[in-house]
Design a protein that fits this description.
This protein is mainly α. The protein is built from 14 helices and no strands. It folds into two domains: about 130 residues, Tetratricopeptide repeat domain (Serine Threonine Protein Phosphatase 5, Tetratricopeptide repeat); about 100 residues, Alpha Horseshoe (Serine Threonine Protein Phosphatase 5, Tetratricopeptide repeat), CATH 1.25.40. Helix 4 runs antiparallel to helix 5, helix 5 runs antiparallel to helix 6 and helix 11 runs parallel beside helix 13.
């Protein structure tokens, strides 16, 4: 089942799931989680919710993995209100949401241009003692950038540096993209150097963003220099 879900052959996974029951093997929480996650990954959230209801009928108690799969699927399908109801249900059932749960909600809020609500949610979860990770912060930084608030994004990024967070390549790349979009190539190149100083190796996407922006601005010499550096590193 898991193998079929990984290659998006969810109907074949569901067929195996049905054969289990017919063969006298009762599906357990892991079986349901695999299939629910598989349906959610391809945005078939109605099918996933049907399985969720079936779990209740069979007295199989959903765990945080079940809820996180459903909440992420609902958020990515634009059904944020349904996702929030599941978060409330988690609290009611004594199954507290974790940072993965909230990261899905933050991502949905940012992509739907509710950045202030995302910031409020981040503050709330920190007050509850949940520590955001770099993935969570990257979601918010990206949301602020796309929401036309690059200064706020940079402030959060600088705060993370000061606090000694181990910032990953994706977060650096988001900030480099912001600088390039605003024509701040000096800052983008400085950020590229800072990455390396902090032991974070840029990837092909990082280089591509800067190179494309430099070519667009007819900074061909600088772009070609970075392109050669990228080739030398084998990052084609």
């Amino acid at each position: 089942m898991d193998g079929y879900c990984l290659v998006k052959e969810v109907n074949k996974a569901k067929s195996i799931f049905n054969n289990m029951a017919q063969g006298g093997v009762n599906p357990d929480i892991q079986s349901y989680n695999i299939l629910i996650n598989g349906f959610c990954k391809i945005k078939m959230t109605d099918a996933a919710m049907n399985l969720f209801e079936e779990m209740h009928c069979r007295k199989i108690i959903p765990n945080v993995v079940t809820y996180n799969s459903l909440i992420d699927g609902l958020c990515k399908s634009g059904k944020i209100s349904y996702a929030l109801k599941l978060v409330d249900e988690m609290h009611d059932r004594g199954q507290p949401p974790d940072i993965i749960t909230y990261s899905s909600l933050l991502d949905a809020l940012c992509k739907n241009h509710h950045v202030d609500k995302a910031i409020a949610l981040l503050t709330k979860l920190k007050d509850q003692g949940l520590q955001p990770n770099m993935y969570t912060y990257t979601i918010l930084i990206n949301g602020l950038c796309k929401g036309g608030r690059p200064e706020d994004a940079q402030n959060i990024f600088e705060d993370l540096l000061v606090k000694g967070y181990n910032i990953n390549v994706n977060t650096y790349t988001v900030m480099i993209h912001v600088f390039c979009n605003n024509g701040m190539f000096g800052e983008a190149l400085a950020m590229l150097s800072k990455m390396e100083e902090n032991g974070c190796i840029p990837n092909a996407v990082t280089y591509e963003i800067i190179i494309r922006s430099l070519f667009d601005k007819d900074e061909n010499d600088k772009a070609e220099k970075l392109l050669l550096e990228m080739i030398t590193r084998g990052l084609l």
